[in-house]
Design a protein that fits this description.
By secondary structure, this protein is of the alpha+beta class. It is 28% helix and 25% strand.
């Protein structure tokens, strides 16, 4: 690891977000806000069938004849490659077992409701919508397979040429008896339901053919450089002739990592027409065309001694990846590799597979495999605590990995960098006043109250900053300010503030004097975007390294200007350098920039970071719920979250990420679920039917942090963007089950809706 200079005073400063004034003034710039003179509007015609063989696409000529319509294209009209073919996609976990080609526009077979089959391009959006209404697919409906367990049988095949619906498989020690030392075992089948990302801004792209043969592309994406790379083949030009800009992006949550088929079609249409074309999803489109998240069925067996020591774990996961296996195909493997959680478990076996079904394709969603692992092991831990008649907090304490055991390699194959799990758990229990909550629970039960109180715990660990490199450049401007260029992309995290704090700290200038440039392939040389809570670790580390190189060069210039040896300099300090023992002799960044220019250069440094490796944030959450035992209504009254993301740069930004993650975790626990009927028709395709909570359904979160620096990167930082969504879901789910434990309820699948809770109470009463 490179040695870099970061003043300790840089960390722990709750600087206000420099991005916020423009948002508060309504000056945020999203794709649909970009003024593009003469831009045409695109609307996609989508499948109304979950599974069907296409005989023809009808109504095309009628649509072309309608007012304002410039073009109507199907797959037969555009020279489009398949988006996903064998060996063409690089994803964590390896290649697909078999090819499952995805057409950019469906032409022969429709595999899910919402799959695009044609594009209408008109002068106005209203004209495009009107024309699209006249187009439909003449198709022969085929049997649809929605349930992943049914898909395994292969009775209905989405890709008959493959002979199977199984996209990926993996296993680890599956034939070993990992429970041989157990005196007690518990087992469960858990459903981690399918959810929709629902970002504030839906997918959007605008493609502008320039007069010189170049293209300018505005896109709502987490990975603009990847989008540029994917457009090369479609546009038939070198990537240097494609400029991709991700302006202000209204949320992503992992769902804006893919290059969607619609992006490629819009780009091709713009190239063919020689005119700008733009497209923005409607909300109902987004609910069926933007990738979904989670969607796993899990089976787990946990073995332990009677004193509560966990001895072994067996885990199986089935992932429903939807119609086309993409990044979501490998979420199950991440889940399996993180299945041991924060516990020291000697023997672990797992296996998994992903299957295609007639639903929207699966992708990454805040946590991407790690929330599913936490949900499984934390539910199993509570089942074990009940079986042993042991307090769930005590069971967890007895099995936590000791702080002096790090770096720690789990039996599932993950290598944790650092952790002090008990400190986080004890702090969460202290904030919650855990003994008082248990006392209140006992009192309510003794009175036979209609409203039962439940206390749920979750101790979790996750992986962030999957090993990757990142680019940065730092320039000192002639006015003495700094401009920093970085390959990550911000979509709400506060990068412009955090990165300016880091660079300003190294250069000893105010963070408001540092301008951050990102998400523009014409201004930033390269980049890998933002995903997996990597930005501060990857982007921050490389920015600090480049700023440090600027400091080293500036020292030589300062020493020459002040006529002293470099060793006699102090700084950077107060925006420049000064002579040790003679602080009145100093030189600032403005003069240093001028001197560098006189010498025929600039005061600048750029480069790609070395791979810092992955880190493993952790934490403990406590949820408190009130459950009406007569109606099944659940109200979350408290949520305590103690999250450890290593060394904290800006506590305010960390708190914001905690709050956002907690809200999404609670949403999965109690409210959200993508549902379809037996024929594969979505029944939650609008926000009238998809139950997304507002602030009114959430309590004021009680957040705290512990700080356990990582040795993996020079910042000591770990990720925080996904932590809230990983720890909160099982805490809330455990709380609901705990509230009803005295009635004999042992498990309720997600989401814990009133219907499900009431059904569980009724079933337990019947079997009592």
């Amino acid at each position: 690891m490179a040695v870099v200079t970061i003043p300790p005073s840089t960390f722990g400063i709750p600087a206000l977000r420099t991005e916020d004034p423009r948002f508060l003034r309504g000056e945020g710039r999203y794709v649909d806000n970009v003024d593009i003179p003469g831009a045409l509007r695109a609307v996609f015609v989508r499948s109304i069938f979950a599974h069907a063989a296409v005989e023809a696409v009808e109504g095309l000529d009628d649509a072309r004849a309608m007012p304002g319509v410039v073009a109507v294209y199907t797959a037969n009209d555009l020279d489009l490659p398949h988006q996903l073919a064998a060996g063409s996609v690089e994803v964590p976990g390896g290649d697909l077992d078999r090819p499952f080609e995805r057409p950019i526009l469906a032409s022969e077979r429709l595999r899910y409701v919402g799959e695009p089959i044609a594009i209408v391009i008109a002068e106005t959006l209203a004209q495009a919508f009107d024309a699209a209404e006249s187009i439909h697919a003449l198709a022969e409906p085929l049997p649809a397979v929605i349930d992943p367990e049914d898909a395994q049988t292969g009775e209905v095949l989405l890709f008959p040429e493959t002979g199977t619906n199984v996209a990926t498989t993996f296993e680890h020690r599956w034939d070993d008896d990992v429970l041989t030392h157990a005196e007690v075992t518990v087992h469960g089948r858990f459903v981690n339901q399918r959810v929709a990302p629902v970002p504030m801004e839906m997918n959007a792209i605008a493609v502008i053919p320039e007069d010189d043969g170049r293209y300018t592309v505005w896109v709502s994406s987490q990975v603009p450089f990847d989008v540029r790379g994917d457009l090369v083949d479609v546009l038939g030009v070198d990537r240097a002739r494609i400029r991709v800009i991700a302006p202000d992006v209204g949320g992503g949550f992992g769902a804006k990592v893919p290059t969607y088929p619609e992006y490629l079609v819009v780009a091709k249409a713009a190239a063919v027409l020689g005119r700008p074309v733009r497209w923005t999803e409607s909300r109902s489109e987004s609910m069926v065309s933007m990738t979904h998240g989670r969607s796993q069925v899990q089976w787990i067996e946990l073995g332990a001694r009677r004193d509560g020591t966990i001895t072994g774990l067996r885990f199986e996961v089935l992932t429903n990846v939807g119609a086309y296996p993409q990044l979501g195909s490998f979420m199950g493997q991440t889940t399996a590799e993180m299945i041991s959680g924060v516990y020291a478990i000697d023997d672990i076996a797992f296996r998994g597979r992903s299957v295609v079904t007639n639903v929207t394709p699966l992708g990454a969603y805040r946590g991407a495999g790690r929330p599913e692992a936490a949900a499984a092991i934390e539910r199993a831990a509570d089942l074990l605590a009940v079986e042993l008649s042991m307090d769930p907090a005590e069971l967890r304490r007895r099995n936590l990995i000791a702080p002096d055991a790090f770096p720690f390699r789990t039996a599932a194959g993950a290598e944790y960098d650092s952790g002090d799990y008990r400190v986080a758990l004890d702090r969460a229990l202290e904030i919650a006043d855990y003994p008082a909550l248990r006392a209140e629970q006992a009192e309510r039960r003794s009175r036979g109250d209609r409203t039962a109180i439940g206390i749920g715990l979750s101790t979790y660990v996750e992986i962030t900053a999957f090993p990757t490199k990142e680019f940065a450049r730092v320039d000192i401007e002639p006015d003495g300010t700094a401009t920093a260029y970085v390959g990550t992309t911000s979509f709400g995290q506060g990068h412009e503030t955090a990165f300016a704090q880091l660079v300003g700290g190294v250069l000893a200038m105010r963070h408001t004097d540092v301008r951050i440039v990102h998400s523009d392939t014409a201004l930033v040389e390269r980049g890998q975007g933002t995903w997996g809570s990597r930005s501060l670790q990857a982007g921050g580390t490389v920015l600090v390294a480049r700023a440090d190189e600027v400091v080293e060069r500036a020292k030589g210039l300062a020493a020459a200007a002040l006529e002293v040896d470099v060793a006699d300099l102090e700084g950077p300090v107060d925006g420049g350098f000064r002579v040790l023992g003679a602080p009145e002799r100093s030189i600032g960044w403005r003069e240093l920039a001028v001197r560098a220019e006189v010498d025929g250069g600039t005061l600048s440094a750029k480069g790609v970071s070395s791979d810092p490796g992955a880190t493993f944030p952790f934490g403990a959450h406590v949820a408190v719920v009130d459950v009406d035992v007569e109606t099944g209504d659940v109200r979350l009254s408290r949520l305590i979250a103690v999250d450890d993301c290593g060394r904290i740069l800006n506590p305010m930004l960390v708190r914001g990420q905690q709050h956002g993650g907690l809200a999404q975790g609670v949403a999965q626990a109690l409210f959200e679920e993508v549902r379809l009927d037996e024929a594969g028709n979505p029944i939650t395709s609008t926000l009238m039917t998809y139950l997304m909570p507002s602030a009114a359904e959430l309590p004021s979160f009680e957040c705290a942090n512990t700080e356990t620096p990582t040795p993996v990167n020079p910042l000591g930082a770990k990720g925080i963007g996904e932590s809230g969504s990983i720890g909160s879901t099982p805490a809330v789910q455990n709380a609901v089950v705990d509230a009803l434990a005295h009635l004999g309820v042992r498990h309720i699948d997600l989401p814990c809706s009133p219907e499900r809770v009431w059904a569980a109470i009724t079933a337990a009463t019947v079997h009592a």
